[in-house]
Amino acid sequence: MEEIQSENQKAEPDPLSAPKIIGLTGGIGSGKTTVAKFIEECGFPVYYSDDRAKAIVNEKDDLKQKIVELLGNDSYDSDGNYNRKYVAEKVFSDQELLKKLNEIIHPAVRIDFEEWVKKQTKYLVFKETALLFELKLNLQCYKSLLVTAEDNIRIKRVMDRDDKTYREVQSVVEKQMPEKEKIKLTNYIIYNNTNLDDLKEQTEKVIFEIE
């Protein structure tokens, strides 16, 4: 286990007014979701940002309208469900369009998260997101926790999980923020290079260390 001090973290919140928010992140194949499940087993709530984003685009009428105005009526199918394949194709090679889409979705997720936090009663809550550092969401957290593993291990896991080729997974890894950059920014690190028992032990140790 390793703790890295970062100057980019927000000062400790008033414990009487709000729980401490711990940002949980990790690249593809790191085991971030597994760690999140272990955290829940320890009794602490986890907000899954990616899952909530997928739900919100179907739940919020104002969000639907903005997305349709940006990307067209085909953004939703005949049943009114978000057309993920169409949207992905639209923004895949258009960074400006992707940026505009994110500017619609990310604020909605932030509001949803804030409302979720208000309902929590534990002194620690965890915000799971793949883009913690890329979107500077770590600045809104009391501490941050990075789940990482050696690149070859991560790539092999995703190949086995998603039936992808080495080149396909490697191309995704190369588009993400390098692990060495994330390590510089985080407070706690879990190295997921061995087995589930070790991963669970490290997770429990980190939770115990957070003050």
Structure, briefly:
By secondary structure, the protein is an alpha/beta fold. It has helices at 32-41, 49-59, 61-71, 84-91, 95-118, 151-162, 166-175, 179-185, 196-209; strands at 2-3, 20-26, 46-48, 124-128, 143-148, 188-191. Helix content is 51%, strand content 13%.
Strand arrangement, major sheet: 1-6-5-2-4-3
Output the structural class: alpha/beta
Overall average pLDDT: 91
- Percent strand: 5-15%
* Helix content, binned percent: 40-55%
Instruction: Please give the count of helices.
Output: 9
Spell the H/E element sequence.
EEHEHHHHEEHHHEH
Most strands sheet: 6 strands, mixed
Oligomeric state of the chains in view: single chain
What general outline do the C-alpha atoms trace?
A: globular
Total beta strand runs = 6
Low-confidence sequence ranges: 1-8
Based on CA atoms alone, the radius of gyration comes out at: 18 Å
- End-to-end separation in angstroms reads 16 Å
Describe it for me?
With 211 residues, the chain is an alpha/beta fold. Helix content is 51%, strand content 13%. Strands 1-6-5-2-4-3 form a six-stranded mixed beta sheet, with helices on both faces. The protein is globular. The model is unreliable at 1-8 (pLDDT under 50).
Topology, please?
Elements: E1 2-3, E2 20-26, H1 32-41, E3 46-48, H2 49-59, H3 61-71, H4 84-91, H5 95-118, E4 124-128, E5 143-148, H6 151-162, H7 166-175, H8 179-185, E6 188-191, H9 196-209
Parallel strand pairs: 2-4, 2-5, 3-4, 5-6
Antiparallel strand pairs: 1-6
Helix pairs in contact: 2-5, 3-5, 6-7
